[in-house]
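Protocol step 4 of 6: structure prediction from sequence.
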Amino acid sequence: MLLWEGFQSHNIKMQNKGAQHHSVHIAIPVFNELDCLPKTMACLSMQRDASFQVWICLNEPPHTKSSHPEIHQANTQTRHWLEKTSFPFPVEIVDALDDPEVNGVGMARNLLATLIYETNREGITLCLDADTLIPDNYIACVRQAFNTFTDAVALAAPYYHPVPENRVTARQLLRYEIYMRLYQLGLWSIGSPYAYLAIGSAMSYRNRAWKQVRGIPARTAGEDFYFLQKLRKMGDIIRWIPVRVSPSARISDRVSFGTGTLLKERDLTLQKTRFPFFHADSFQKIGAFYSLFKQLFRSSCPLPIDAFLAEKMKGQQPFDRIRANSKTERQFASNAHQYFDALRILQFLRYDHQKTGNVYQPPVDVDSCDYELLNAYRNELFAREEAYQRKYMKHWRQRLVSGKTGEKVFLSQTIV
C-alpha cells in the first residue's frame, strides 16, 4: 500500500523505461518545461556516478487544458519527448496531467517521493527542478556526503543563480539572492540550528526520513522550506558539499512565490516589502533569547522577544509547557528550538522589521549601484556563507571521529 492512500485512486499513468534497483533516485517535477528539461537531462547523462534512477512527474493545475492550451500542449510535447528519447539511465515517467489532485510542485514532489519510497526505503532522493543544471560530479558528491555523515537526514547543497543578460532582471535576481544569503548569515551569527537555505532544486534526503516526517507538504510553493524544517527537527542537515547547483533565473508563474514569480515584478518596491534586509539587531534579539534558555529552564523571565510572543504566540505559555516536560537544561534547549523553529524565526524577523522600521544597509546600494559591483557583493556573501558551512561540516566530522554521534540536542550541533 502506498504511504499516501489517496494516490491509489488518482488518474495517474506511469511508464517505466528500463527501471533497475538503485540506491540513489532523482525526483523532478515538470510543468511547462519543454525548453529546459532537455538541458537538465543532459547534465544527468554526463554524471560520473551513473548508478541512479530518474523519476519525472508531469503535472499541471486543473483546467490548464482550457485556460492555457499552449501550456498543456507544451506539457504533452514534453511527455512525447521523454517517451521517444533514450537515456543512459532508467527513467520512470509519472503522467499526472489529467489528475486535478496533483496540482503544484509540493504535490508532485510528494507523489514522486511516495513512489520512490515504495521502491527503495533505505535509499536517498535528490530533488531537482527541470530547469536546474548540475556539474558532472554532483551525484557522486551527494552520495559521498551521505555515506560520510551517516547520521544526516538531509542535505542542502550550495546554489548559485546564473545571472540573466537582461540587466533589470539581473538586478532583481541578485537582490533576492543577496536577501537570502544575508538571512542565512544572520542566522549563523547567532548560532541558529536553522542556518541553512531551503532550495527545492538543491535538497536531498534519506527516504526513511521522508517517511518519518510524514512526507513533503502538499503546497503549491514553499514546500522545500517546510519539509527541511520538519527534517531538521528529527536530525541534522548536511550544509555543504564541494559542488553547487545552478537553478534557473527565468521569469515564471509556475508557483505562487519564489525566484521565477519575483522576476515577473518590475517594481523593486515589492522586493523591499516582501524581502527586506533584516537588521542585525533583529537577529541579536533572537540570539539573546537563546542565551536565556538556561534561566528560562528554571522559571519565566523577561525575554527580548516578549512583545512578539504576546502578540503572536500566546506569550510565554508554550515555554511553561516545555519547561514542565523537560528534565534537563539540554532537553529544554532542544525543545525550545523545536518550538521556535525556522518559521517562527522568520515571523519574528518580519514582525520586528515592521515594528522598528530598521533595515540592514549593505555596503553597496543594491538599487542603483553598478551591476558588476552588485554581482561582486553577491559573490562575497557566497564566499562567506561557504566558509561558515565548511566550518560547520568540519565540526561535524570531528564529532564523528571522536565518536560523539547520535546527539539530537540542537545546541550540540550549533556553532558560530
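Step 5 (inspection) to follow. Residues 1-10, 406-416 have pLDDT under 50 and may be disordered.
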